[in-house]
Amino acid sequence: MVSSLSEWFWNERLWFPEGLGWADLEDKDGRVYAKASDLWVVLPIALAFLVIRQIFERLVATPLAAVMGVKEKVRLTVSHNPTLESFYCTTTKNPSQSSIDSLCKQTGCSERQVQRWFRRRRNQDRPSLLKKFKEASWRFTFYLLAFIAGLAALIDKPWLYDFKEMWQGFPILTLLPSQYWYYMIELGFYVSLVFSVASDVKRKDFKEQMVHHMATIFLISFSWCVNYIRAGTLIMLLHDSSDYLLEVQPITGELGRQHNMIIISLP
After folding, report:
1. CA 55, CA 205: separation in Å to the nearest integer?
2. Nearest-angstrom CA–CA distance, 77 and 80
3. What positions does the domain Homeobox occupy (predicted)?
4. Model-level pTM greater than 0.85?
5. Which string of b and e fits 59-88 if b means at least 16 CB within 10 Å?
6. Strand partners of residue 31
7. Quick one: which H or E segment has residue 207?
8. Structural domains in the chain?
9. pLDDT in tens, 79-113
């Protein structure tokens, strides 16, 4: 069944105009074409991004945060209470009044003590401003560098100025080294975001964010497999040109919140 499905999926009639087939995309005479098997290189690239990110956050983002006045806020830790901790992890982080009354009876604590415990416990789970700043700085840096690199790769290409050139000779389009690395680096970055989602700050739009990452990975991979290389690089360049600007707001937002907290704390 798997072989039959694979044979149907890769049927030349689905992918090529009449008279052309997979044999026409075989590397020969110095001409190289995109292949689905090339995508395996994305995995080591994604792992490399995870390592580079850790180095960047430690050696660049953290000192930059210190210069800009973004500091780690010291939070009070809660006392160890197995009953309250179990309720917090398995039931809810915001207990109702009836639940608080029940917990008071179970633990022997006053209502105010239980409320204070849950408030401090929630604060412990909140990501710090420094963590948010470092994550936004990493994404800003990548998108900015990716935009610059993509612009350098496409600045002398005719399809950047004339969209008709995108499909000239399709699907027999030779793959250029700059296109290969632009694709692999972009795809590797989004795969690394999926890998790091467990340790990143969980945003309110977490589900939408995951759908966005998965859809981006699918679309980049699909455009590679069907040789939409020229159109794909233009679309990635367009997105990179705005994505780094979108990351400016989280950076300045965390900085603004930090300074507001400092002002509020002044006598």
Report:
1. 27
2. 9
3. 67-128
4. no
5. eebbeebeebebeeeeeeebeebeebeebb
6. 28
7. helix 206-225
8. 16-71+128-257 (no CATH), 82-125 (1.10.10.60)
9. 777 888 887 778 888 888 888 888 888 888 888 88
